[in-house]
Design brief:
alpha/beta; signal; AIM6_PI-PLC-like_dom; Altered inheritance of mitochondria protein 6; 3-stranded antiparallel sheet; TAT_signal; single chain; about 280 residues; TIM Barrel
């Protein structure tokens, strides 16, 4: 079966209209950030590429982390959630790397003007992990001044920190590198192991596989303590924490769960509802 298929007509039309209406990427976007509220570093845009304006919608809502799924097709890294979504014009470069490079140049070295903290770019590998990562590494090298870099045991901060998730086979070639422009997305099983934060700066896991509470009723004390212990263990090793598969339907249950995540010190709140999480975090500063 061919990996590149025709995208749904409505999605393609929506993206085309959004691209036509969107302001130019680069200095125009950067200029508009001068008087905006500070970034929301704990906001993570799950499946960011499904928004009308990938990356730019998340930045407009001041998100500190965005997620893109990639498929290796030939030597191209195509963006999409499934094979049926793939379009040869929607590449990692066109939707993320090139716009980020222009924005960082216009902002004199940062994604958000006046803030040196890196934006997190979570890259979720959907094809075989080892070969896809090695191709991704070749792509990232073309933007060597953009990314946080690991160099012989040292981490040199950049405007963007790429973290590799998805197919777990990516870990093997990453661990073998003495110089790399990406880091590995660990799981709860990696907590307390010998893997350092210089390889695994992020611990992510499925909420529903580790907790029963979905925001309704009282958060069980044992689960609250478990959550806080996990976060403390990660933070003690310089790692950040994110959960996916949390409730994302607007309402009291989602707000209650997000409030518990904030109280426990979870570093990234996962959502497809950009405006909803922005409003929540602004209300809970």
């Amino acid at each position: 079966m061919a990996l590149i298929t025709r995208r749904r007509a409505l999605t393609t039309l929506g993206a085309a209209v959004a691209a036509t209406l969107a302001p130019p990427v680069g200095s125009a976007w950067a200029d508009s950030q001068r008087h905006r509220p500070r970034p929301l570093w704990r906001a993570h845009a799950h499946n960011d590429y499904e928004h009308p304006r990938p990356l730019l919608d998340a930045l407009d809502h001041r998100f500190g982390s965005v997620e893109a799924d990639i498929f290796l097709v030939g030597d191209q890294l195509l963006i999409g959630h499934t094979v049926d979504d793939l379009d040869p014009t929607r590449t990692l470069e066109s939707l993320y790397l090139d716009p980020l490079a222009r924005i960082v140049k216009a902002n004199h070295g940062s994604v958000y003007r006046g803030y040196r903290r890196p934006l997190q770019l979570l890259v979720d590998i959907k094809t075989e992990g080892s070969s896809t990562y090695l191709e991704l590494d070749r792509h990232l090298r073309r933007y060597k001044h953009l990314f946080t870099t690991y160099v012989h045991g040292r981490v040199l901060p950049g405007a963007v920190t790429a973290v590799i998730s998805g197919d777990r086979a990516a870990r093997v070639p990453m661990e073998a590198q003495t110089v790399r422009r990406a880091f590995y997305d660990g799981r709860l099983a990696d907590l307390g192991t010998s893997a350092p934060a210089s390889l695994i700066p992020l611990i992510s896991d499925n909420w529903t596989l580790n907790f029963t509470w979905l925001g309704e009723g009282v958060f069980p004390d044992a689960e609250r303590q478990k959550l806080r212990t996990l976060v403390q263990q990660a933070h003690a090793r310089g790692q950040r924490v994110r959960f996916w598969a949390t409730p994302d339907l607007a309402g009291p249950a989602r707000d209650a769960l997000w409030a518990e995540l904030l109280a426990a010190g979870v570093d990234y709140l996962n959502t497809d509802d950009l405006a909803g999480l922005e409003a929540f975090l602004d209300a809970h500063r």
